[in-house]
């Protein structure tokens, strides 16, 4: 009989047997809105699984000291921490109380020094004044937004003309939707950047007079 320490057991278990749908959907629900114990686990998994994706996106933005930056769907706060290291002033929003708490823990020093702020809020109703920010970014959160168009309108609203946005997803199939959505709400020079693992980041510049 195979045991957990047997390669064949692990191979069969992880790659041949489909994950039961209820577990898969419960896990998806946690990625979309982490809560409770499973949400805490989801936060730890995200922090590891999305670490290099967050660094890729933030480093690509070329943030400057003093720039005002917003991350939407900050999760456990890995992207916020990377952004704050540049000297930018960074606000993170997430609609999950558990993730705001996790991100606070990870960024406690930057929070105490006033370089990071965290707010529980939704992508569709950002608690930020219009045309007040230099940069908005989001990593692996857009696919979970309830209303993509409304979220994109909010991204455009809070950016000053000439500000920039970077919206990253794991699945490259999201690229065309994000490109057309960003153009529709008032971004120009919209570009798709793809990493070897398929991670896709769509960037654009907020147009004047939208
Ligand atoms: C898969 S996690 C990614 C978290 C983080 N960006 C990272 O890369 O580790 C998705 C995050 O987006 C947040 N989220 C999903 N929909 C949201 C919305 N409409 N408004 C704000 N946050 C949202 C979830 O609570 C979750 O923390």
How are the SSEs placed, and which strands pair?
Layout: H1 7-16, H2 21-32, H3 36-49, H4 51-61, E1 68-72, H5 78-84, E2 89-94, H6 97-106, H7 108-112, E3 116-120, E4 133-139, H8 148-158, E5 159-169, H9 175-185, E6 187-194, E7 200-206
Parallel strand pairs: 1-2, 1-4, 2-3, 4-5
Antiparallel strand pairs: 5-7, 6-7
Helix pairs in contact: 4-5
Bound molecules: S-adenosylmethionine (SAM).
Your description of this structure?
There is one protein chain. The protein has 210 residues and is an alpha/beta fold. It folds into two domains: 7-47, no CATH class; 50-206, 3-Layer(aba) Sandwich (Rossmann fold), CATH 3.40.50.150. The chain has nine helices and seven strands; from the N terminus they run H-H-H-H-E-H-E-H-H-E-E-H-E-H-E-E. The chain has a seven-stranded mixed β-sheet with strand order 3-2-1-4-5-7-6, sandwiched between helices. Helix 8 links the parallel strand 4 (133-139) and strand 5 (159-169). Helix 4 (51-61) packs parallel to helix 5. The longest helix is centred in the first third of the chain and has 14 residues, at 36-49. The protein is globular. It starts with 6 loop residues before the first helix and ends with a strand. Mean pLDDT is 90; it is low at 1-17. Bound molecules: S-adenosylmethionine.
Number of domains: 2
Largest sheet: 7 strands, mixed
CATH architecture of the largest domain: 3-Layer(aba) Sandwich
CATH homologous superfamily descriptor of the largest domain = Vaccinia Virus protein VP39
Strand order, sheet with most strands:
3-2-1-4-5-7-6
Low-confidence stretches: 1-17
What oligomeric state best describes the polypeptide chains here? single chain
Overall 3D form: globular
Number of beta-strand segments: 7
Number of helices: 9
What is the helix fraction of residues, given as a range? 40-55%
User: If you average the pLDDT, what whole number results?
Assistant: 90
What is the highest CATH level, the class of the largest domain? Answer: Alpha Beta
Instruction: Briefly note the structural class of the backbone.
Output: alpha/beta
Radius of gyration: 18 Å
């Amino acid at each position: 009989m195979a045991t957990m320490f047997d390669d064949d057991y692990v191979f069969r278990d992880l790659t041949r047997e489909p994950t039961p749908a209820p577990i898969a959907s419960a896990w998806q629900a946690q990625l979309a809105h982490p809560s409770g114990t499973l949400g805490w686990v989801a936060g730890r998994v995200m922090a590891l699984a999305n670490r290099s994706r967050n660094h890729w996106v933030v480093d690509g933005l070329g943030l400057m000291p003093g720039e005002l930056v917003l991350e939407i769907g900050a999760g456990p706060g890995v992207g916020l921490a990377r952004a704050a290291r540049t000297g930018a002033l960074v606000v993170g929003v997430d609609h999950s109380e558990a993730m705001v708490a996790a991100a606070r823990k990870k960024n406690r020093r930057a929070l105490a020094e006033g370089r990071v702020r965290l707010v529980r809020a939704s992508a569709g109703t950002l608690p930020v004044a219009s045309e007040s920010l230099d940069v908005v970014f989001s990593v692996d959160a857009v696919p979970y937004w309830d209303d993509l168009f409304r979220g994109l309108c909010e991204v455009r609203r809070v950016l000053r003309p000439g500000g920039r946005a970077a919206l990253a997803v794991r699945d490259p199939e999201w690229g065309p939707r994000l490109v057309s959505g960003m153009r529709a709400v008032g971004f120009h020079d919209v570009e798709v950047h793809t990493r070897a693992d398929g991670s896709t980041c769509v960037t654009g510049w907020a147009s004047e007079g939208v």
